[in-house]
Amino acid sequence: MAGTDDADSGDALFVLTAVLLTPAQFPSVLGDDYPEACASLGLEPYAEGYGLVFGQDSDGARWTVAVDDVSLVAVAIASWDCGMEYDLSPDERSVVAALPGWPLALAVSAPGVPAPHDPDPEPDAEGVAAVALKPPDAGEWGPAQRRLGADEIALQWAAWRQQVDEEIIFEDAGASTAGGPDGPDGAAAADGGSGTGSGTATATGTGSEGGGGHPGLRRVLAEARAYVETPPPAGRVRSSFAPGDARTIRADGPGWSLVARTDDIAFVLLDEEPGEVLTVGRGPELPGLLEALEKMAVRPS
Predict the structure, then answer these.
(1) Rounded distance, CA 263 to CA 174, Å?
(2) pLDDT in the model for residue 252
(3) pTM, whole model, 2 decimals?
């Protein structure tokens, strides 16, 4: 933890943690893509991106400080991930915005200051007070919770994949689908700690990479294919490390999120199906779609 100066109040900010806000890496809770994530914080979607620093002032108030020194924040995050100490103290000149509240739930707080709380609203020149940033309600289901659920699946891929191997049988492409008129309902209850925001998530087999008879999956796969022809806003398709020679694909669209590995299957979450995690079996079409998405995806530098 380190201290910096709050751009608005001049008060010291006790830094708790930080994340990157770039086209290739941003808190997906903020939006389906990089421009949307920036807009949720009132920031311009500059290609270089930002660092988001989360901290408390001396009164304990929560603040999110956006800085344009992305490299500094990246080095701090890498150091912390390696278990090393790093004094993250962004220069005041790098501060782009100081926003009340935190958009993410943090389990830590600064020692020696009051408990974390939102600062008192201060009206701007037009008399409008900024609404404090808040993490999404874990007891509800919506776009933010859907994206957080997809993030959790990406982080816990092995556990989710093992569940599918044990509980769901995939048909070949063109065969009847699990849960369809000719197949049994292939559903497996997952651990309540899945992070999907609905208490318990369910993985449901679809039978083939075409989505079978599930209209939501057909829509998702059609929109994902359209991304290959007409690239979407930056950050809607992202590629990150996976074991072996594979890559993890994260894609989002209006009302849906997809998590896949280029050598494996795909998981899909939908706004209209709270807590449900739909699986897309690997067949003759899915590998080509995932490879095409990987080629046009943005990835961390």
Answers:
(1) 20
(2) 98
(3) 0.82
